[in-house]
Design goal:
This protein has 560 residues and is α+β, with helices and mostly antiparallel strands. The protein is 32% helix and 26% strand. The chain has a 20-stranded antiparallel β-sheet, with helices on both faces. α2 packs across α3, α6 packs antiparallel against α8 and α9 runs antiparallel to α10.
C-alpha cells in the first residue's frame, strides 16, 4: 500500500482548482466515491476475460490468493462503496487534507487484511496506537520514502477512516462525516469525484478573473500578428464568461470513470451540474443531441471510419477561428499568384461562413469489400455554399486547360443529383499494382460541391456513393468517433498484403463482424452537461477465431 498513491486521491484536485483555499468544516469542497468493491472486481474480471479469455481470469484470481492468502478480501465489505472527502490548501498544496473511508466487515478482520498485505519486509504498512487518543492509529509505510504525508486511522461506523494531513483532534469520531452523506446514489460510475461550487471560498471568482486578466495583459504584450492577438483575446473572453457562469449558476463539477459491460466502453466523463432554476440549467436542458450532416456515410458496409464535429459551440471560438483564417490569408499575401487570389479568397470566405454556422462536420469512411474484394473511400467536409468555390475552380480549369493538356483528363459534370454537379477523375488505371488490388483498376474518383459540403469518393462504387452522400440528412452522432469492423479490416489487410507480410496485424484482430467505436468523444445535455472520452475494450480483445479456421476471413483472390 503506497501512502503517496492514497494521498493523491485527496490532492488530485489541485490541478483543476489552483486558486482554492480550505473550506468550512463539515462542507468539504471535494467528495469522491466508488462502486461497491465487489462490483469493481466483477468489472475487472469481465475486462480480463474479454481481452485474454477465461484462463486469464483464473490467473487473476490466483494472483489475488498469492498476495492476500486464502482469506482474500476478507475484512473489506464488498457490497458498500469507498468514499472520500477533503479540502485544498492553495498556498501549500502538500498540506491539503482529506479522508478516504473504506467499508469494513470488522476492525479486527480489516487489520488482519492489512497484516496479510504487509507480509513483505519492504512493502505494506504498520499501525501504531497514538498516545492519548484511544482507537486512533498512526499509519506508516515500511518504505521510509513514502512517509511524507501524515496518515491516521480510526474505525467508526463500520468503516476505516484514513485521514491525510488531518489533525489528531479532527480524527475524533464525533467529527467524522457519515460516509452515506458523501454518496450520490444515482452515480453508477466506477469512480468519481466532485467539486462543489457553492463551497468555494469567498473571493474565488474574483481571484480567478484576476488571473485571466493578467493573462490578457501578457497576451497584449506579445509580439504577435493582429489576427493571433484577436484570437487569443476571444478565447480569454470566453474563459472569463464561462468562469462567471459556473461560479454563479453551477452547483457541482463531476469527474467520473465509467465502464459499460454491455458496450465494453471505458470512458472518462466530465459533467457540470447546474443549480436548479438558473439560466445555465435551462441552457443545458435545452441542448439537443449532437448531429452530423454526413453521419450516413458510415453504414453496414463500413470497414473503418472517422466522424468529427469541430467544437465551435461558443461565439468566441468561432470569432477566434475567423481571425486565424484572416491572418493566415494575409500572411500568404503576395506569395499567392494573382490568378489564384479569387480561389483563395473564396476558400477563406466559405470557411468563415461554415465556422459561423457553429457546425463544422467531417466524415471519412472506407467501405468494402465488394464481390471482387475491392474497397472504396469517401470523404465529406462541411463547406457552406460550396458551389461558389466550384465556380472559381471551373474558371481556373477553363483558363488553364489549353496550356495544360493533363487537365483534360478530368471529366466535368458527368452526373447530377439534387441539383449538384458531379465531376470525375478516372484514376484506377494509374494506380500501382497494390492500389489496383485494393480499389480495382477501373475505379474513378468523384467530387461534388453541394450547398453545405464538399464530397470526394473513390473506388468501384464511388459514383453511387457520392450520389447518396450529396443527399444525406443530418443524423445523431458522437462529436468524435473512430469506428472499426474487425472482420472487414482483416479483409482489407489481406487485400493489400498478398504476400502475407502483415500476418501479425491480421492475427491481432478478431473476426467479429460488427462495427463499433474504438475511440470516441461525446457531448450530452439534460439534467447535466456531460463530456465523455472513451475507448472500447473490444479493440484489445483476444481473436475469437484465428485466420484460416473459417473461410469468412479469407480472400477469394483479386480478379477482374
Amino acid at each position: 500500500m503506497k501512502l503517496r498513491f492514497l494521498a493523491a486521491s485527496v490532492l488530485v484536485l489541485s490541478i483543476i482548482a489552483p486558486a482554492l483555499a480550505q473550506t468550512s468544516a463539515g462542507k468539504p469542497l471535494v467528495t469522491a466515491q466508488t462502486q461497491p468493491l465487489g462490483k469493481i472486481l466483477d468489472d475487472v474480471k469481465s475486462i480480463v476475460r474479454l481481452i485474454d479469455g477465461e484462463k486469464a481470469v483464473q490467473k487473476f484470481n490466483e494472483g489475488i490468493r498469492e498476495a492476500l492468502g486464502e482469506k482474500g478480501f476478507t475484512g473489506l465489505d464488498l457490497n458498500r462503496r469507498i468514499v472520500g472527502y477533503g479540502d485544498l490548501n492553495s498556498e501549500e498544496p502538500e498540506k491539503s487534507s482529506g479522508f478516504v473511508v473504506i467499508p469494513v466487515t470488522s476492525a479486527a478482520e480489516f487489520q488482519d487484511l492489512l497484516a496479510r498485505m504487509s507480509q513483505d519486509d519492504e512493502k505494506g504498512v504498520t499501525l501504531t496506537p497514538v498516545d492519548g487518543n484511544p482507537g486512533l492509529y498512526s499509519v506508516k509505510s515500511k518504505n521510509d520514502d513514502d512517509n511524507e504525508v501524515s496518515v491516521r486511522l480510526r474505525f467508526h461506523d463500520r468503516a476505516a477512516y484514513f485521514g491525510f494531513n488531518v489533525a489528531d483532534g479532527d480524527m475524533a469520531a464525533k467529527k467524522l462525516l457519515p460516509a452515506a452523506a458523501m454518496i450520490r446514489p444515482t452515480d453508477n460510475s466506477v469512480f468519481s469525484y466532485e467539486t462543489h461550487f457553492n463551497r468555494y471560498p469567498a473571493g474565488t471568482k474574483k481571484q480567478a478573473l484576476g488571473e485571466l486578466q493578467k493573462l490578457s495583459a501578457m497576451a497584449d504584450g506579445l509580439p504577435l500578428p493582429p489576427g493571433a492577438k484577436k484570437a487569443i483575446g476571444e478565447l480569454l473572453s470566453m474563459s472569463k464568461r464561462m468562469t462567471t457562469t459556473l461560479m454563479d449558476d453551477g452547483d457541482v463539477a463531476a469527474y467520473r470513470l465509467r465502464y459499460d459491460p454491455q458496450t465494453t466502453e471505458i470512458a472518462w466523463e466530465t459533467a457540470i451540474i447546474p443549480r436548479a432554476g438558473t439560466k445555465l440549467a435551462a441552457t443545458i436542458a435545452a441542448r439537443k443531441p449532437t448531429m452530423n450532416r454526413f453521419a450516413g456515410l458510415i453504414g453496414k458496409e463500413t470497414t473503418g471510419g472517422l466522424l468529427l464535429q469541430l467544437p465551435l459551440f461558443a461565439p468566441e471560438i468561432r470569432n477566434a477561428v475567423e481571425a486565424g483564417l484572416d491572418q493566415g490569408v494575409q500572411l500568404l499575401g503576395e506569395s499567392i499568384p494573382e490568378e489564384f487570389q479569387p480561389l483563395v479568397e473564396e476558400a477563406r470566405a466559405g470557411l468563415v461562413r461554415t465556422v459561423q454556422t457553429g457546425q463544422f462536420d467531417i466524415v471519412a469512411a472506407v467501405d468494402g469489400p465488394d464481390a471482387k474484394y475491392h474497397f472504396g473511400v469517401a470523404l465529406a467536409v462541411a463547406f457552406e455554399d460550396a458551389t461558389k468555390l466550384e465556380k472559381q475552380l471551373n474558371n481556373l480549369y477553363e483558363k488553364f486547360k489549353g496550356d495544360r493538356p493533363e487537365l483534360l483528363f478530368l471529366k466535368l459534370d458527368v452526373a447530377k443529383v439534387a441539383g449538384v454537379n458531379i465531376h470525375e477523375a478516372p484514376l484506377g488505371a494509374f494506380l500501382p499494382d497494390d492500389g489496383k488490388a485494393i480499389f480495382g483498376k477501373n475505379s474513378s474518383a468523384y467530387i461534388a460541391f453541394g450547398p453545405h459540403g464538399i464530397y470526394l469518393t473513390f473506388g468501384p462504387k464511388a459514383l453511387d456513393t457520392i450520389k447518396a452522400a450529396v443527399q444525406l440528412q443530418p443524423a445523431p452522432a458522437k462529436a468524435f468517433d473512430l469506428v472499426m469492423n474487425p472482420a472487414r479490416l482483416q479483409k482489407l489487410i489481406i487485400a493489400s498484403d498478398p504476400d502475407g507480410e502483415a500476418q501479425a496485424a491480421v492475427d491481432a484482430l478478431e473476426k467479429r463482424d460488427e462495427l463499433f467505436s474504438v475511440l470516441f468523444a461525446a457531448v450530452e445535455g439534460g439534467a447535466e452537461l456531460r463530456v465523455r472520452f472513451g475507448v472500447s475494450v473490444k479493440m484489445f480483445s483476444k481473436p475469437l477465431v484465428k485466420l484460416g479456421e473459417s473461410g469468412n476471413a479469407e480472400s477469394p483472390g483479386i480478379k477482374e
